[in-house]
Amino acid sequence: MFRLAAEPLDPAALQRALSDVRAGACVTFEGWVRNRNEGQPVTALEYEAYAPLAEKEGARILAEAQEKFALIGSACVHRTGQLGLGELAVWVGVTAEHRGAAFDACRYIIDEAKARVPIWKKEHYSSGATAWINCATRGGEVGDAAQPPA
Amino acid sequence: MFRLAAEPLDPAALQRALSDVRAGACVTFEGWVRNRNEGQPVTALEYEAYAPLAEKEGARILAEAQEKFALIGSACVHRTGQLGLGELAVWVGVTAEHRGAAFDACRYIIDEAKARVPIWKKEHYSSGATAWINCATRGGEVGDAAQPPA
Amino acid sequence: MKTVSVQYFAILREQRGLTEEKVSTTAATLAALYDELRARHGFTLPGDRVRAAVNDEFVAATAPLSDGVRVVFIPPVAGG
Amino acid sequence: MKTVSVQYFAILREQRGLTEEKVSTTAATLAALYDELRARHGFTLPGDRVRAAVNDEFVAATAPLSDGVRVVFIPPVAGG
């Protein structure tokens, strides 16, 4: 299950939905809004999604993970809209009989989601500046593509 | 923070305790009681710990993880006593600026904890048999050391 | 002359100042359409940093542009 | 003759039928003490599958056994 959510996520409920007595391992990844990015103090974020294609591509990534790894269940939910510091931006959870598959699949899903799902992040800095991440076209600028993701 | 717990764990509270606005990634591992192990239907488990040394060794593993990986926080809590199917047996949570360190550290902590912390698991099977896992001394027996962990 | 609908997101939406428009064009490919729109609206992202979608599926930028389709140009993504 | 306290956990506790006892022994090392106890109580785990702790710290099985210490023999662990 991949979905976009305009409202705050409830990770406990998301994880409960993955409960399965066949599962011995559950690995989750949460992406949180950090207070700094590449040394710039961040005050808030906004995420914008191209919803129909984001949902299709997210579902494809989960299907690939189910195919590649010995999974029982998997889910990924991504926030849209305005987020404050410390807020949960993306949640990935997977269950498997054994932990190796769960770790590998969770990592696969978040890596692929960050690379492929059409969602964009705009950072707001304490200076008042803003930047669409990965969209700078000149070096040295806030929001330069060189910055590492979470 | 490593600790043993005789009562059910509260993963939401454990994760909240790791909240940090410097963190961009939080990875958790949960070990759940499965309904089968190596084909045997499992009905319940019990964990027994050599508490003083388990707590020391658990704390050493977390300190190693903090040293090896670019972590912000880490915690591991392991249940003792009787557990039913689907119950949470062990919880590991780590936070980091970036997700690579968080995944690697979470995996390191659970791998090392399973290998080094003096905690033992006794499985109860629907046949009425029981076995201390990894303690069999003849092949082919329930609880044989060959069985893969979660 | 073809007429297509173009939807804008993120930095392209801000630089264009709207979320969707009808465009009449003679562009043969999606890449050619992006270059045309970039020249017209001053988009900062070069064509090689933008992916394309038609009717909510990814397509190659070199794919031919058909009449009546809905086009989205996708800036570098940054979820998570 | 030394006197040590021995604590039992898990399969050793069940096979011994108690959690702790005082033991008088001439064993020179922890490994020798385990072999002595194994012969006496019928422990199924061979010495090479058991680790040793003295006063709540891991020690090598070949370490000399001192008078008055508290010893734990550690079956293969299985947390998680």
Report Rg of chain A.
16 Å
How many strands, what sense, and barrel or not for the largest sheet of chain C? 5 strands, mixed
Number of helices of chain C: 2
DSSP helix count of chain A? Answer: 3
By CATH reckoning, the class of chain C would read Alpha Beta
What is the name of the CATH superfamily of chain A? Molybdopterin biosynthesis MoaE subunit
Based on secondary structure, the structural category of chain C is alpha+beta
Strand tally of chain C is 5
Instruction: Please indicate the percent range of residues of chain A in DSSP E strands (runs of 2 or more).
Output: 35-45%
CATH topology-level fold name of chain C: Ubiquitin-like (UB roll)
What spatial form of chain A do the alpha-carbon principal axes imply? elongated
CATH architecture of chain C: Roll
Order of helices and strands of chain A: EHEEEHEEEHEE
The average pLDDT value of chain A, as a whole number, equals: 92
Strand order of the largest sheet of chain C: 2-1-5-3-4
Write a brief structural summary.
The complex is a heterotetramer, with two copies of chain A (150 residues) and two copies of chain C (80 residues). With 150 residues, chain A is of the alpha+beta class.
